[in-house]
Each structure stands twice: as C-alpha cells, then as structure tokens.
Amino acid sequence: MMSLFICALMLFWLCALDETRDTGNLGRRDRGCKKHAGKIGFVAVFWLYMVIAYSHIRMQEKDDPTYEAAQEGDRYLAATAVGALLIVIYLLWFLYYTVRGLAVLCSLPPPPPPPLPGGARLSCASSK
User: Fold this and answer.
1) Nearest to 11 by CA among 27, 33, 29, 31
2) Percentage of residues in the chain having pLDDT higher than 70
3) What is the rounded CA–CA span in Å between residue 10 and residue 40?
C-alpha cells in the first residue's frame, strides 16, 4: 500500500511540473492519457519493481526467518542497481521539468495589480 502511495505522489509531481512547463504553450495542448503515457508507464514499472522486490523478500523471510537479502550477493547488488537506476531516472526527469517550469514562469509577464477595495482608484491629481 505504501508503494502505491509513493508512486501516486511521483506521478502527481511529474504531471504537475509538466503542466507548469506547458503554461507558456496555450495554443497547442495535448490532453488525456496520451500526454502522460510516458510518465504513467514509468511509474507503473517503478511500482511493479517495488512490489516484486518486496514480495520476494517477504516470501523468502517466510520460508527462512534468518533470511537477509544482502546475503544473496550478486542478485541483491543487481536488484539494488536497478532500483537506484529507476530512482536516478525519476530525479533527472523531475529536475528537468522543474528547471523548464521555472524558466517558463520567469518569462511570463507580471500579473496586474489587484483592485482596491470599494472600487476606489488612485490618481496623481489631487482633488480639492
């Protein structure tokens, strides 16, 4: 259950940062799953990897209470390397969207000032 929550957060932040990056491109917007298919696929692979790794460790511990995954040697190192690679890919993707989103936000014009309460207007001329 925790892996599903973590993957949902990962997908949320990738999609939110991608939408921030797309605010400067209001004329052409891709909608739906087609736009987010790569992100959904990556997060699904990451979730599946986490579930398989956790299930394998739990099943081995059930058969042998003294089991430790780190004692498997090469298989453990390969599994750790794959997990680390997935995390690095996600972080690079996250940083890419963050930098692109900040660049788009910095290039937007400043918002207009908010109206004053009561509809009053400021003017440079003094009234007597």
Assistant:
1) 33
2) 82
3) 10
